[in-house]
Design goal:
By secondary structure, this protein is an alpha+beta fold.
Amino acid sequence: MGFTSIYAAERLLESFFRISTLITAPLSVDDILQNILDEVVETMGFDRGIICLLDDEKENLVTKVVKNYSPEEVKRAFSSHLNLKKHDCFETKVVKDGHYLVLEDSEKDPRVTETDRKISKMYKRGSTFYAALQVEDEAAGMISLWSREKSKFSPEAINILLTFANQISVVIHSAGLFEDNRDKIKMLLRLQEAGSQLNTCDTLDRMHEIVIDSSLKIGKAERALLYFIDTEKDKFLISDGRETFVDEENKYSSKMKGSIIEKAFEKDTIVVRDAVQNNKVMPVFDDYPIEIAIPLKIRDKFKGVLCLGKKGVAFTRDQKNILDILVINAAASYDSAIMHSMLSLEAKSLKTEVETLKEREDKILGFHDIVGHSAKMKEIFRIIREVAGHDTSILVQGESGTGKELIARAIHRQSNRKSKHFVDVNCAAIPGTLLESELFGYEAGAFTDARKRKLGLLEYASGGTILLDEIGEMNLSIQAKFLRMLEDGYIRRLGGTDNIPINVRFIFSTNRDLSRMVAEGAFREDLFYRISVVPISIPPLRERGEDAIILAYHYIEEFNNKFNKKVKGFSEKSEEILKQYSWPGNVRELKNIIERVMIMQNVRGVIKPDNLPAEIIEETPKNSIGMQLDDSISLDSAYPVDYKVLINSVTNTFRNRVLSKVLELSKGNKTAAAKKLGISRYALIRELKKLELN
């Protein structure tokens, strides 16, 4: 079908004229594109049309306007983008090639791809025309027009359509220039406003706020920071526009090493960082790949830098120039106020010795709020980092109160599933029949009280992590069904027949010996091997003595805040008692005891032995030195053993270990060592001499 034979040349000329007038129209780019698409569809006799433009990264085609789409189709068109690399379809082909495509029969054309079928499945196409939109020989987007009826495109019709496409490209280019000019005008107005505000401002905090707020708007950035150095006093002042403080302990200055802030100080010029070109420069703002640092030339003893970070497109030349002017204006205003402000902030930041002691220097957070600094806990933290990124099943084993759920939550937060649900199920707290329905769900009518369908926790946790606590308490019948689910990857609700895929990361925990349960027939052997791909064994608190004190101080800090108390810590004897106690209830028991002491006891300053519960003091040996005789004595010799020689040897060995240990605990003080052993100092010296003789 020849379109030019249907529509008169006068109407085409009128349409071209109307499109040309849009170049200077006071409309947004989207409004202009909508008017153009309406003209093309109506003038050329198509049923529908769409215009897509490339995003800032030139990677995705983004829908800008549509014509004659249903509300559902409009929603779908604007919610999904076509990626030039990932999607193989006519829309992306014409953009990459810069040509046009004609489909006289869109359903039977051999070039149609699976992506094309998905795009057009909601609407039956007869004939389709695709054309690239180019601005200064660079792809800008595409236009697609189609009709229900199958039609032939004459050369005249194609030339007219290409003329329309060229006009659209010119309009896009012109409208883009107008928008750029509008942006430049907005930036200049903002710069003028900031200059006026700085001239009438005499406080440094307000100056920080003006500079930060203005720079964020001019640079279209998300993060901003002002960083100053007092070169004479070696002090660092930092402001984010809301808070200003002196970095007395140089916590932040260490992060600036190797960053663009350091580079801007060294070069005294604007420095730009992006993740591709400057990957060796350390970031100032985490997760913000584009950064700019502009030095502030203040008085000699001060140096300053304004740093901005953003995630979108790079800073334009106009943004850099206007930001530089903003910083020059700000530097002049800073000269008169910065000295007074630095002195004022230093006075506010001074702390008394008592306040410094109250700081949480002795609180060591191990990993994801799990407190621990022992070698065993560090190894567990390492394992968590290694396994968190995989979907392997994990079995967390440990005594009650050791923090198995905390470990499971740490794995979830460290994994790529952290944005999804974390569901914990206590198998011991839910009866067997109810546990099955909780995990798998049920259909309406599956049993007497099942009035409507219920999703199981396995479905609810889809995409996330599920913790099955006390897995050893799951009865054998549910174990069999659970094993089947692990092997097949889907479930069936109670009373249902549909196979429902399951996408869940499983973590299991128990305080029981599953190996022994397998041997006794109380736990399925095949299930045991499926759930224990990566076993994590949490040591009891008695095996990580150094963590007991760290945890105790951590809970003192927590309950100080909770109960408005001012307990500083423990006496030396109290710490010794806490170290020697066996902690059968592990971390949970320690926390409960600290809470009880701080509620019930009127503690002033430090917690003393008198403040501790009687059960802890009674269990702790008064003269314990933490020694045990090992079972390393070998009696497997083929010849008879000389009993007297053996006993004498063992006695001397053990005496040596006991005396060495007690002297170590007493730091070489013989009087203190003798007191720990309950003997006199002379008796201790005689024992040491016996060792020398032997």
